[in-house]
Specification:
262 residues; alpha+beta; eight-stranded antiparallel β-sheet
């Protein structure tokens, strides 16, 4: 029998062996704290189980917070849900509220606020509802001091005479302007006496009286005094000193104007 020749044979494809899963015994930690959930031992000092992450001491009480941390808006619940932005906003609002309350309630603070408003706001002339005088020379009544022109005047018969203006509604008085003499023309200005010092008594709605002194230069033209008084209902001007007095020469007040904040 003749042997047949052996042909080429391809090598077989290797088949990888399947991995064998071998259980690994958990290494217990002797003298450890057993987990209340899965029973695994944990070394001393651990807070959570090494196997299931459960709290090892769920009954422990959290450390007490300072008293201010228990008040809104610093308590944990609000703080955790609101974040730093809300806390900052709340603090800013609280501070702003305290400042506003201080300005409104403290007289000095309120004065500062009103003074700023006077400087930033506008002004407007206000006419009195009634004008009266303690005395007048014939032909020169009190109303001529508020008629809007300076060539007519109130003639005060003597020092101490007063002119009172009363207003319909309380207002914020920010200034008073006075024109002295019988006319603004220089040649006629000195024909009569002219007030050089006067006191203003400003009465407010609550019956409180504010006193202001006004020194006047002996020359024609407007002279003003600035002030800031709220709720004014009347203004009384008393002539204290005058120039150019003499026999038959009254003290001439050409015009007086009152200005309010607008």
């Amino acid at each position: 029998m003749v042997d047949e020749p052996v042909g080429a044979v391809q090598p077989g494809v290797p088949i990888a062996a399947r991995p064998v899963v071998r259980p690994i015994a958990a290494v217990d930690e002797p003298d450890g704290t057993p987990c209340p959930k899965c029973g695994a031992s944990n070394r001393p000092g651990r807070k959570f189980c090494r196997r299931c992450a459960a709290p090892l001491n769920p009954g422990e009480q959290a450390e007490a917070l300072p008293w201010w941390r228990t008040r809104w808006p610093f308590d944990r619940k609000v703080r955790a849900g609101s974040g730093r932005l809300l806390r900052g906003s709340v603090l800013a609002l609280l501070i702003a509220g305290l400042l506003v309350a201080g300005f409104m309630l403290v007289p000095a603070g309120r004065y500062v606020v009103e003074d700023v408003r006077d400087k930033l706001g506008g002004t407007g002339e206000i006419s009195p509802a009634d004008v009266s005088a303690s005395g007048s020379v014939p032909g020169h009544a009190a109303k001529l001091a508020t008629d809007g022109v300076t060539n007519s005047y109130w003639g005060a018969p003597e020092l101490g005479a007063s002119l009172t203006a009363e207003f319909d509604k309380p207002f914020r008085l920010v200034g008073v302007t006075v024109h002295t003499g019988v006319s603004k023309e220089p040649e006629a200005f000195q024909r009569n006496g002219r007030p050089t010092k006067a006191d203003l008594f400003i009465t407010t709605e609550d019956k409180k009286v504010h006193e202001k002194s006004m020194t006047l230069t002996d020359k024609p033209g407007p002279q003003s005094i600035r002030m800031g008084i709220s709720d004014v209902v009347s203004v009384r001007l008393v002539v204290r000193e005058a120039a150019g007095q003499g026999a038959g020469r009254s003290i001439a007040l050409g015009e007086i104007e009152y200005f309010k904040r607008t």
